[in-house]
């Protein structure tokens, strides 16, 4: 697949509490921005992939939410759902369809409208046989506490992740929580599930993001300089890793496996990556992710954060968009939104949050927690 | 669903199925059972039809000692789901049983801030409905 698929257009709504826009309107906002960015007519879309965890009302367990929103009828549309890796996996599937030679142009769109649903948008967590009051923060906190016990990570280091990602997000007009926070604010915030306080957790968010991809050999005829897909990996492991006595809780093997697939396809090493959008659903998750992605050995992610290596002007900027932490996390939209940030950065269009002269960017989701991970590597065309 | 004392139990209740029936029946007798593969001998939790080691379906229930150690835990301060919101803060814990299997549970009968990774714990049983008792753990 390497260098055979190009991203030629991107669109992304403002993320946030979007009570004033419907699920269909969010889809239209993202898609038409992407059509315009590429300079194409919607009729040119041959196939589409919808990444969504909770489809629009009446959408059911199908891809009709996208068809009806965009009036894209009588074409193949596939709905992808793979926990928090939904968006990146939808993108990966679209790329495979282009690389297979089946279609010349495909729309990938992730959308979610969570804020006007009960239960903070997320269905009540927990298998009654297995769960004892687990929440999303609680499940990641189980891993974070074991990690803290093993490597001596401090809450102050977790707070630095939140401070950095809020600083990046404050520079991003489309971010949900567009404000800076101080380390003291993060540390003094109410505890959600120890060691995570309020600012260690990403928000619940509405939003949609879109990418238009096409055959790389056709890409130069469109409006913007194309960005090439270098590699993509998807790894699914047990949906219940918590009960595996050999699981050490120090990281997620699905991320490690998906990253290895993507690097092998791209023919690169982790050290070749210039910046990354990683799944910072919680501050600890970013630290563990950058280790699982091979940017540093296990246990040293906190040091990278402490030393400022992951800042916008650091050696390896992580989450220049603001990440899930500040930009927000509409589940199915997040992965596609990360792709759009990689494209913006690789085109050099990121303005105040521009990473210096990047060649290769990476997008990563992990969900489950730990059950599924998807990694995409993009490069300047 | 009413508890034995007539009050309502609002937290999640299990859907007892063929794979887990033996587990719940043992808990109702205040015994903690895990499955053992009759072909390779591997013990497993959670209850399921096939051995995760050798895929054999030949399974028997064996009584666990109820002793274990805390592998990791968190103290939950925010959960607005019915039943849980009245129980905050509570300890969600992963306990490794002496038998070599791992389960998710709550540590009770101690202050949440007293729980430590590596702490020895022992099982106790909470009767939540006439049919359902849950295994919880306390410091041993």
3D structure, described in words:
The complex is a heterodimer of chains A (381) and B (140). By secondary structure, chain A is α/β, with parallel strands linked by helices. Chain A has a single domain (5-114, 202-380), classed as Thiolase/Chalcone synthase (Peroxisomal Thiolase, Chain A, domain 1, 3-Layer(aba) Sandwich). Chain A has helices at 23-38, 64-70, 86-99, 136-151, 155-170, 183-188, 253-266, 283-292, 301-306, 323-327, 331-347, and strands at residues 5-12, 47-51, 77-80, 105-112, 191-193, 196-197, 207-215, 227-236, 275-277, 360-367, 372-380. Chain A has a nine-stranded mixed sheet with strand order 3-2-4-7-1-8-11-10-9, with helices on both faces. In chain A, strands 5-6 form a two-stranded antiparallel sheet. The model of chain A has no long low-confidence stretch (mean pLDDT 94). Chain B is mainly β. Chain B has a single domain (21-139), classed as Beta Barrel (OB fold (Dihydrolipoamide Acetyltransferase, E2P)), CATH 2.40.50. Chain B contains one helix and eight strands; from the N terminus they run H-E-E-E-E-E-E-E-E. Chain B has one helix at 21-28; strands at 33-37, 43-44, 59-63, 67-76, 90-97, 102-107, 120-127, 133-139. In chain B, a hairpin with a 5-residue loop joins strand 7 and strand 8. Chain B is globular and about 45 Å long. The N and C termini of chain B lie far apart (32 Å). Classes of the chains: A alpha/beta (381), B mainly beta (140). Chains A and B meet through helix 4 and strand 5 of A and strand 4, strand 5 and strand 6 of B.
């Amino acid at each position: 697949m390497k260098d055979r698929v190009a991203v030629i257009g991107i669109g992304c709504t403002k993320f946030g509490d979007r009570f004033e826009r419907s699920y269909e309107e969010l889809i239209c906002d993202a898609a038409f921005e992407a059509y315009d960015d590429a300079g194409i007519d919607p009729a040119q879309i041959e196939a589409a992939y919808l990444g969504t965890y909770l489809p629009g009302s009446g959408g059911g367990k199908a891809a009709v939410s996208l068809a009806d929103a965009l009036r894209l009828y009588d074409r193949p549309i596939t709905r992808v759902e793979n926990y928090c890796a939904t968006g990146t996996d939808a993108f990966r599937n679209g790329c495979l369809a282009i690389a297979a030679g089946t279609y010349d142009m495909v729309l990938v769109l992730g959308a979610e409208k969570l804020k006007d649903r009960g239960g903070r948008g997320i269905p009540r967590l927990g298998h009654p046989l297995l769960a004892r009051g687990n929440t999303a923060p609680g499940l990641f906190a189980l891993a974070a506490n074991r990690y803290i016990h093993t490597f001596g990570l401090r809450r102050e280091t977790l707070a630095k992740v939140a401070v950095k990602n809020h600083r990046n997000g404050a520079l991003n007009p489309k971010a949900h929580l567009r404000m800076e926070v101080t380390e003291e604010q993060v540390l003094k915030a109410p505890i959600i599930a120890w060691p995570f306080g309020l600012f260690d957790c990403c928000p619940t968010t509405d939003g949609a993001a879109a990418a238009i991809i096409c055959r790389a050999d056709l890409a130069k005829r469109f409006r913007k300089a194309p960005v090439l897909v270098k590699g993509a990996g998807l790894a699914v492991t047990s949906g219940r890793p918590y009960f595996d006595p050999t699981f050490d809780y120090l990281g997620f093997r699905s991320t490690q496996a998906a990253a290895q697939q993507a690097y092998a396809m791209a023919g690169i090493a982790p050290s070749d990556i210039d910046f990354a959008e990683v799944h910072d659903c919680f501050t600890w998750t970013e630290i563990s992710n950058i280790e699982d992605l091979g940017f540093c050995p296990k246990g040293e992610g906190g040091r990278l954060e402490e030393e400022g290596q992951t800042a916008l002007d650091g050696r390896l900027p992580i989450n220049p968009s603001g990440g899930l932490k500040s930009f927000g996390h509409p589940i199915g939209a997040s992965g596609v939104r990360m792709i759009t940030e990689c494209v913006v950065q690789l085109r050099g269009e990121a303005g105040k949050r521009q990473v210096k002269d990047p060649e290769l960017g990476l997008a990563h989701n992990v969900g489950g927690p730990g059950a599924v991970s998807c990694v995409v590597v993009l490069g300047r065309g | 669903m009413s508890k034995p004392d007539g009050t309502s139990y609002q937290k999640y209740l299990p859907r007892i199925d063929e794979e887990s029936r033996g587990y719940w029946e043992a808990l109702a007798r205040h015994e903690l059972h895990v499955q053992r593969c009759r072909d390779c001998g591997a013990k497993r939790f959670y209850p399921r039809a096939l051995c995760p080691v050798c895929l054999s379906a030949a399974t028997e229930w064996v009584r666990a000692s109820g002793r274990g150690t805390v592998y990791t835990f968190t103290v939950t301060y925010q959960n607005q789901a019915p039943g849980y919101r009245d129980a905050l803060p509570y300890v969600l814990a992963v306990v490794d049983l002496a038998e070599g299997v791992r389960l998710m549970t709550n540590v009770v009968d101690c202050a949440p801030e007293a729980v430590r990774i590596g702490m020895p714990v022992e099982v106790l049983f909470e009767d939540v409905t006439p049919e359902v008792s849950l295994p919880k753990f306390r410091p041993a």
